[in-house]
């Protein structure tokens, strides 16, 4: 299977939360650091880098400034170094409860404090020197076992999660990381949680909560007994093993989860590659051969469709469309035109893709009619987490409205009908648009929203008024944007 960006390990970015629930912050002014921020945003985001000297020390780089945290011999700390020096080297000491202690390697002192009174001068560990790791990446991803090189997915027949997938195909390969009480849960696509004994449960009980550890850029999940999740046995069942230290078997990569879609043509049949290399609308059910991984090019905003048989859609002689390309090229790129509940595809020859009488797809049309329109359905986000420019979408406390600037997130449930999506939140209430563009989350009846996949990893959501949902200065979700740009684009 060619890569072409299909399997991209996510760069682990995170925030560090102190004992008073404030995040370590790197300020632009004076390159000072403090622990005053109540939420995780750009200034509170850090990246862990290995020490170039190949030792056990690590470097902490502010993803906001691109500079490194340093601690001098007298305990003064800053985030000013453009290149890492001796004072930038720290040791990460994981504690039994999963929190971190950061120790200056050259000076042996511990880093901590509150507000703007941070230093690296403590000779003993107190609560002020304890930091909780809070991932800053989008929490929906694929999980790859480092030792087995297999993807974790939900096995419904065995009622378990297993690391036995060659490719992360279909909805069962989607995992959502849920952050609560300073720990993480692994949530499956059917909204269950993985317990450390391998069972799937409906509530995030204590044995379904894990602390994160990093090792050489990989992730390990430690349970409440100090044991680590690992694939076990021939089937690769995911459960806590015997090891109390993470080795290769206990390490995982998080990979970006690209949208996987099905398309329905005007003949009400699914577009498929089941009968060979030709892309045709000739199937009555949606299975692997009818599922396509969709990637959007960041520069051109055009997209590719990758099939389960290992080929990209590509334009061939006389306008035909085949799933045979092994590399991305001009002929594998298609322009998306959003037409309400339908979408039209324009190929590299400047013509629209249509369904011919025999069901085969071909880019031979100069205009868009019924045969050039398709229903496009996102299948690998039955549960949805949205992040905008200012943070995640979350229910506002004591209100039926939604915040868009939170460092914690709510998980929403999606349903689909005739080209539109219905979004359901906490308590089963549906999203709907109220007066003056407000968006509420306690509706008894579903309202249709249109999803437009505009950029790589980002979509726009259009309300029935024709306006797009955006995050505003008030921090509330509103349906009043005229164009799908900036604050009207959502990472999903």
From TrEMBL:
One of its GO terms (biological process) is anatomical structure morphogenesis. Gene3D superfamilies: 2.80.10.50. Keywords: Actin-binding, Cell projection, Cytoplasm, Cytoskeleton. Its main location: other. CDD domains: beta-trefoil_FSCN2_rpt1 (cd23345), beta-trefoil_FSCN2_rpt3 (cd23353). GO terms for cellular component: actin cytoskeleton; cytoplasm; stereocilium. Residues 21-133, 142-254, 266-376, 390-492 form the Fascin-like domain. It holds the Pfam family Fascin. InterPro entries: Actin-crosslinking, Fascin, Fascin-like_dom, Fascin_metazoans. The keyword Zinc does not apply. It is found in: Cell projection, Stereocilium; Cytoplasm, Cytoskeleton. One of its GO terms (molecular function) is actin filament binding. SUPFAM superfamilies: Actin-crosslinking proteins. Belongs to the fascin family. PANTHER family: FASCIN, FASCIN-2. This is Fascin. The gene is FSCN2.
């Amino acid at each position: 299977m060619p890569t072409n960006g299909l399997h991209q390990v996510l760069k682990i970015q995170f925030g560090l939360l102190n004992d008073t629930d404030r995040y370590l912050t790197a300020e632009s002014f004076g390159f000072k650091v403090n622990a005053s921020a109540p939420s995780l945003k750009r200034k509170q985001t850090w990246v862990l880098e290995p020490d170039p000297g190949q030792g056990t020390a690590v470097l902490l780089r502010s993803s906001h400034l691109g500079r490194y945290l340093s601690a001098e011999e007298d305990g003064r700390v800053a985030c000013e170094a453009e290149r890492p020096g001796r004072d930038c080297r720290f040791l990460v000491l994981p504690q039994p409860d999963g929190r971190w202690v950061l120790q200056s390697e050259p000076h042996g002192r511990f880093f901590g404090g509150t507000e703007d009174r941070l230093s690296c001068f403590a000779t003993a560990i107190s609560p002020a020197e304890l930091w909780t790791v809070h991932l800053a990446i989008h929490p929906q991803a694929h999980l790859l076992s480092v030792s087995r090189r297999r993807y974790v997915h939900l096995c419904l027949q065995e009622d378990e999660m297993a690391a036995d997938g060659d490719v992360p195909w279909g909805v069962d390969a989607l995992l959502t990381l849920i952050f609560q009480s300073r720990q993480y849960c692994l949530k499956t696509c059917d909204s269950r949680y993985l317990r450390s004994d391998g069972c799937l449960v409906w509530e995030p009980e204590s044995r379904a909560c894990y602390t994160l550890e990093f090792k050489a850029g990989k992730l390990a999940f430690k349970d409440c007994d100090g044991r680590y999740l690992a694939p076990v046995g021939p089937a690769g069942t995911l459960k806590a093993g015997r090891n109390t230290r993470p080795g290769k078997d206990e390490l995982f990569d998080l990979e970006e989860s690209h949208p996987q879609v099905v398309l329905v043509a005007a003949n009400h049949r699914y577009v498929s590659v089941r009968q060979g290399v030709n892309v045709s609308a000739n199937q009555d059910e949606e299975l692997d051969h009818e599922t396509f991984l969709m990637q959007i090019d960041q520069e051109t905003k055009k997209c590719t469709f990758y099939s389960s048989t290992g080929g990209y859609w590509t334009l061939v002689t006389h306008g035909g469309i085949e799933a045979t390309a092994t590399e991305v090229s001009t002929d594998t790129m298609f322009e998306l035109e959003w037409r309400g509940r339908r979408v039209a595809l324009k190929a590299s020859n400047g013509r629209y893709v249509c369904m011919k009488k025999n069901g085969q797809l071909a880019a031979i049309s100069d205009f868009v009619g019924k045969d050039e329109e398709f229903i496009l359905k996102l299948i690998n986000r039955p549960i949805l987490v949205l992040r905008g420019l200012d943070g995640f979408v979350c229910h506002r406390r004591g209100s039926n409205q939604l915040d868009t600037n939170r460092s914690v997130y709510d998980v929403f449930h999606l349903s689909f009908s005739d080209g539109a999506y219905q979004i359901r939140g906490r308590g089963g209430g549906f999203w709907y648009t109220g007066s003056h563009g407000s968006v509420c989350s306690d509706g008894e009846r579903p309202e249709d929203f249109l999803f437009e996949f505009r950029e790589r990893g980002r979509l726009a959501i259009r309300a029935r008024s024709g306006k797009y949902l955006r995050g505003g200065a008030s921090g509330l979700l509103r349906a009043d944007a005229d164009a799908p740009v900036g604050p009207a684009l959502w990472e999903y």
